[in-house]
Design a protein that fits this description.
AB_hydrolase_fold, alpha+beta, Rossmann fold, Immunoglobulin-like, 25% helix, 8 helices, 368 residues, Ig_E-set, Esterase, 8-stranded mixed sheet, Esterase-like, 19 strands
């Protein structure tokens, strides 16, 4: 191919890409996470997001989207004082945090509901996923998510956790259940798995389909000693391990109908919650029988050597993360005689659709 043909080929390619990028379907609808009655932000069938902010005296407005989105969308001001813009490309399916920068100050979008992430309450937007049925609110029996406050002598404070109990828990007074202790990521809190992750709906649907053995999920705040972003290596597990193992687990076992041996107790977590899971399960292999790391690192056979053998090791991540490391780790664990399972979420990154899918895949494997 000569130089002119090469030049013509690239010119045609650029024109094609340009035309494609400009073809945005005008079927935008309000995000499912909007405040009641609010029209913006909106999403369309292709995964684009459109924002509209009223700031008549502002000089600049920008929307910064979380991981998996296309950050830094600059809005343009209209004569009516509203700033509007559409993301430069489609976003990953699922949930995203975002905030609005107005003249250098960081704010939340008044049109969207807020979710705790990045150590603050941030706006949230949901890009409908093609497989969203597994976490949809359906006409099936539902469990309950209740807040508990438990004493913590190690920290000198009362602490909070949320407990999911499956459908029928209140009626079946003699039945006891296994428990999954499920941890959030850095900058999030104990509300994340219910609000952003829809863990309760995932469980309700799996139970209604007869795909899992019902169990409790306990979600508590894992940042017992605070650490700033970029300094995760400074995090010490001992304070949180004391809260979880010595205080929360005994409280749950005393106040809920639980099966209290390691074969009926699991621990899993996303991102930093996975790091906590790995540290605690290796320190306390007699407490937990099932391990789950969701975008939260891996286990190596040497990590588990000479310890009580886990009944399951589940490791997952998004396809836009480091899936080769996950699949290799599980291959190595299987080769060493461990029951290990890997899962890679298609076309997602370090984000909640990855973790929703991971919980959906892991739950049926627990407590077998």
């Amino acid at each position: 191919m000569n130089v002119r043909l090469i030049a013509a080929f690239f010119a045609a390619t650029l024109i094609s890409i340009s035309c494609f990028s400009q073809t945005i379907q005008e079927d935008f609808k309000p995000s499912s996470l909007n405040q009641p009655g609010q029209e913006y932000p909106q999403v369309n069938s292709q995964g684009y997001a459109r924002f509209r902010i009223f700031a008549p005296k502002a000089d600049s407005v920008k929307v910064s989207l979380g991981l998996g989105g296309r950050g830094g969308t600059k809005l343009k001001k209209g004569d009516d004082g509203y700033w509007t813009a559409t993301t430069e490309g489609p976003m990953d399916e699922g949930f995203h945090y975002y905030n609005v920068t107005i003249d250098g100050g960081k704010f939340n979008d008044p049109g969207a509901k807020n979710y705790y992430g990045s150590v603050r309450w941030e706006s949230g937007i949901e890009i409908p996923a093609h497989d969203q049925d597994f976490y949809a609110l359906k006409d099936v029996p539902h469990g309950n998510v209740q807040q508990i406050l438990f004493p913590s002598k190690s920290t000198g404070t009362p602490r909070r956790a949320f407990v999911y109990t499956p459908p029928g828990y209140e009626k079946e007074k003699s039945k006891k259940y296994p428990v999954l202790y499920l941890q959030h990521g850095w900058g999030e809190d104990e509300t994340a798995w219910s609000n952003q992750g829809h863990a309760n709906l995932i469980m309700d649907n799996l139970i209604a389909e007869g795909k899992i053995k019902p169990f409790l999920i306990v979600m508590t705040y894992g940042m017992t000693n605070e650490v700033k972003f970029g300094k995760i290596r400074e995090f010490k597990i001992d304070p949180f391990q004391a809260v979880l193992v010595d205080e929360l687990i005994p409280y749950v076992d005393a106040n809920f109908r639980t099966l209290t041996n390691r074969d009926n107790r699991a621990m899993a977590g996303l991102s930093m919650g996975g790091m906590e899971t790995k540290m605690i399960t290796l320190n306390k292999p007699d407490v937990f029988g099932y391990y789950g790391l969701l975008s939260g690192g891996v286990y190596a056979p040497d990590d588990l050597k000479d310890k009580a053998k886990p009944k399951l090791v589940f490791i997952s991540c998004g396809s836009k993360e480091r899936p080769d490391g996950v699949t290799k780790a599980v291959t190595d664990l299987k080769g060493a005689g461990y029951n290990a399972v890997s899962y890679v979420s298609d076309k997602t990154a370090h984000e909640f659709l990855t973790w929703r899918r991971s919980l959906h895949e892991m739950a049926p494997l627990l407590f077998k």
